[in-house]
């Protein structure tokens, strides 16, 4: 076990993320064409300490708060959406690893800057065996699998009395899984969100958690129980990890648009300078306001998570759902902002070396994610506001 370390201030971690933006941009085309992160991106994330933000301090991590996480991932999103998304997945799944018994964490974090990937879809089957479970099945959309050390898998397993099935989490080394290279997508291509397959993989009991308990904030770690970072709901912690990527992409679109603006004309019009056209003024102003509003919701998620963690007060259903709907709203607003700037970028922006077309596809992909899909979240939040039960346990 590594000795405890001091957590760098938020401003320092944001500065380190900002220093990576030129590198991430330089590899963005390679990352998209190869459908995985460039190795130098991963190495730079590790060297910067960004991958330690959700690792406990006893393993040399930082236990950074959600406000820091949002600011850092927003900054990474300015450089490359795929890299920011994978960093957010690693932050989420490393946090999930911290729910497991402490002896399991000893295994996971024996690797410096351990990277954990995962999804929450229970698309596999777990059969009880002496000392654990045997898992068979596959999982789609496993972002960052190629660069991860462990995966949090989800499978359906019998309840203790055998009367029905329930979903369980399992912590599995990537070496026990087979990767199917099937990530041919329109957006977030660089995330390498492939399919992983388990074939008779044995998972010891200590590395299995029942999801119904997890969703009620019943975690197995003793040493993390009193840390504010690890005593929040799973979905709220995930929202704080994910939301920065969407905001960062919106800011990337702004920067990309204004970088190309000088000297651009509006073809087939009298405007030899696009910046002089009233329509451009309307477009950039509306986009700027949408980006600011997306940032507001990102900050709102982070503030809610950190404030509740600090107080230790129980979460209400409305607060749990607010974390999800605020994240969805941030993604929705970010997409609207990018749509405006993309439309204003003209036909030349279709070339692959112009970032706005990739940013547009990446932010669209984020809005299709099942956990953050805007309309699904609006409906569920509306149900809660109307006094009805949410139509999902994932809050």
Describe the structure.
By secondary structure, the chain is of the alpha+beta class. The chain has three domains: 10-108, Acyl-CoA dehydrogenase/oxidase, N-terminal domain (Butyryl-Coa Dehydrogenase, subunit A, domain 1, Orthogonal Bundle), CATH 1.10.540; 116-214, Beta Barrel (Butyryl-CoA Dehydrogenase, subunit A, domain 2); 232-385, Butyryl-CoA Dehydrogenase, subunit A, domain 3, CATH 1.20.140. Helix content is 48%, strand content 14%. It contains twelve helices and eight strands. The strands form two sheets. The protein has a four-stranded mixed beta sheet. α10 (317-343) runs antiparallel to α11 (355-367). The radius of gyration is 21 Å and the shape is globular.
SSE order and pairing:
Blueprint: H1 10-26, H2 28-34, H3 39-48, H4 66-79, H5 81-97, H6 102-108, E1 116-118, E2 124-129, E3 132-142, E4 150-158, E5 165-173, E6 178-180, E7 194-204, E8 208-210, H7 211-214, H8 234-260, H9 278-311, H10 317-343, H11 355-367, H12 374-385
Parallel strand pairs: 1-4
Antiparallel strand pairs: 2-3, 3-7, 4-5, 5-8, 6-7
How is this structure best summarized?
By secondary structure, the protein is of the alpha+beta class. The protein has twelve helices and eight strands.
Descriptive terms for the model:
four-stranded mixed β-sheet; alpha+beta; Butyryl-CoA Dehydrogenase, subunit A, domain 2; four-stranded antiparallel β-sheet; 12 helices; Butyryl-CoA Dehydrogenase, subunit A, domain 3; Butyryl-Coa Dehydrogenase, subunit A, domain 1; 395 residues
């Amino acid at each position: 076990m590594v000795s405890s370390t001091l957590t760098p201030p938020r401003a320092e971690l944001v500065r380190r993320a900002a220093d990576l933006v030129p590198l991430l941009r330089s590899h963005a085309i390679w990352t998209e064409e190869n459908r995985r992160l460039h190795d130098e991106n991963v190495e730079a994330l590790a060297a910067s300490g960004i991958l330690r933000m959700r690792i406990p301090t006893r393993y040399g991590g930082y236990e950074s708060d959600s406000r820091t996480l949002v600011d850092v991932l927003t900054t990474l999103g300015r450089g490359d959406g795929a890299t920011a998304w994978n960093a957010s997945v690693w932050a989420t799944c490393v946090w999930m690893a911290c729910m497991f018994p402490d002896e399991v964490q000893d295994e996971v974090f024996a690797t410096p800057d351990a990277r954990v990937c995962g999804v929450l879809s229970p698309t596999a089957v777990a059969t009880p065996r002496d000392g654990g479970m045997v898992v068979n099945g596959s999982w789609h959309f496993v972002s960052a699998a190629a660069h991860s050390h462990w995966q949090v898998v989800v499978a359906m397993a019998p309840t203790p009395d055998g009367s029905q099935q329930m979903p369980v989490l399992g912590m599995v080394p990537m070496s026990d899984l087979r990767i199917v290279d099937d990530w041919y997508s329109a957006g977030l291509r660089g995330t390498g969100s492939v399919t992983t397959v388990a074939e008779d993989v044995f998972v010891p009991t200590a590395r299995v958690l029942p999801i119904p308990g997890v969703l009620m904030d019943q975690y197995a770690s003793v040493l993390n129980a009193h840390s504010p970072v690890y005593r929040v709901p799973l979905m709220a912690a995930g929202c704080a990890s994910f939301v920065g990527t969407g905001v960062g992409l919106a800011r990337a679109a702004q920067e990309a648009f204004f970088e190309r603006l000088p000297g651009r004309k509006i073809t087939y019009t009298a405007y030899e300078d696009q910046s002089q056209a009233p329509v451009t003024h309307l477009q950039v102003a509306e986009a700027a306001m949408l980006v600011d509003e997306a940032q507001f919701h990102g900050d709102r998620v982070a503030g809610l998570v950190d404030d509740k963690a600090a107080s230790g007060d129980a979460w209400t259903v409305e607060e749990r759902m607010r974390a999800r709907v605020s994240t969805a709203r941030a993604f929705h607003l970010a997409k609207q902002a990018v749509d405006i700037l993309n439309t204003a970028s003209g036909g030349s922006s279709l070339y692959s070396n112009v970032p706005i077309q990739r940013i547009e596809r990446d932010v669209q992909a984020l809005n299709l994610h099942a956990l953050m899909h805007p309309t699904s979240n609006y409906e569920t939040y509306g149900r809660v506001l109307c006094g009805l039960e949410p139509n999902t346990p994932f809050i």
